[in-house]
Amino acid sequence: MASSEPGALNRLLARARSLPEPTWVGPGDLSRMSFEAIVTRRGEIRDRASHGRVRLTGPGVREHAADLDEVGLVATLWQRCITAVGAALEGTRSASGRIPEIVRIRTQLSLQAGFAPGSVLLDVVPKNPPMEEVAPEGERRMFDEPRPLADRASDTLLQLLSVAAADDFQAGERLRTELAELGPRVASSLRNLADVLHKAHFDVEASWEEPGAATHRTRVTAGQSGWLTDFVRGQDLDAYETEIAGTVRTVSDMAKWAIETPEGMEHVSAAQLPPKEVRSTLVGQAITLAVQVRVTERPDGSTWRNLTALRVLSRE
Q1: What is the DSSP string of 58-99?
Q2: Where does the source fall among the domains of life (predicted)?
Q3: Cα-based distances in Å from 28 to 33, 64, 78
Q4: How many angstroms separate the CA atoms of 158 and 292, rounded?
Q5: Residue with more model confidence, 302 or 274
């Protein structure tokens, strides 16, 4: 397990230098600076937990109330984004397979819900004590001290949302590059979150406060979330290409093909294959296909794979 920030995060931050840097000028920043200065004089500041806030406003919020199922989905999908980003930063970028349990533990957030006039507040804090990652052996490093994964993942998620909310023609290219580097699991999680925010008509203002560091903030409107959903899906950033090999069990020009593989039965859409490829494929043939895989996560956390055949690589 890496103990310092992977190069991927450094490259992401370097490409986003045109975006506003985390600042100390927001409401409450001066009081936090003062308090942390006192704590620093008296002891160790890094044993304090970081703190995040997700503030929901917009047409989907009535005074300071919103539909419970929609707010619950936002909270669930926010956590899944943090965990997916944390897994990517630790080297697990594939959309298939399970995220390592240690990553889930290190990125788990605890919720402290509340409200303010015209908004619903989701205050979150890391569940894992920060010193378990800052000083895992009980010893502090003098240089290159590791940051907790929840801090790195939260910063990166806010960075991605900031890019999506940037009103310039370069935003799409930056977002494409960053999501391609983080992998389809992150793109899929971000698309799901943006889709819920858009459909629930929520504007979101998010911030992350790490002890001793400037506050990172972003704001994304419901309309921008809709654009983000369409962008990820339209660019196939939540999908990946692979090969499957097996025996053809059903062939159709309208329904999905059934391909029996050593791992089990796969159902593959052949809608993108030329008609001659469909006519040339027979039941019982051994076949190898290049397929696009899009993994979709259900609200209960389970996933299903949608396979689309791109090319027939071989037939026997």
Answers
A1: STT-BTTB--HHHHHHHHHHHHHHHHHHHHHHTT---SSSPP
A2: Bacteria
A3: 9, 21, 24
A4: 29
A5: 274
Residue 232: closest CA among 270, 200, 190, 263? 190
Q: What is the pTM assigned to this prediction?
A: 0.78
DSSP reduced 3-state for 163 = helix
Q: How far apart are CA 176 and CA 25, in angstroms?
A: 30
At 176-202, the pLDDT tens digits run: 999 999 999 999 999 999 999 999 999
Can you say whether the dihedral through the CA atoms of 283, 284, 285, 287 is positive or negative? positive
Helix (H, G, I), strand (E, B) or coil at 125: strand
Q: Phi and psi (nearest 5°) for 216?
A: -100, 130
Strand order of the β-sheet with 51-57 is 109-116, 119-126, 51-57, 203-209, 216-220
3-state secondary structure of 14: helix
CA distance linking residue 30 with residue 23, whole number of Å: 11
Altogether, the residues listed in the chain come to a count of 316
Cα–Cα nearest to 95, from 169, 172, 179: 179
CA torsion sign for 178, 180, 181, 183 is: positive
Specify the residue for token string 């076949």: 287
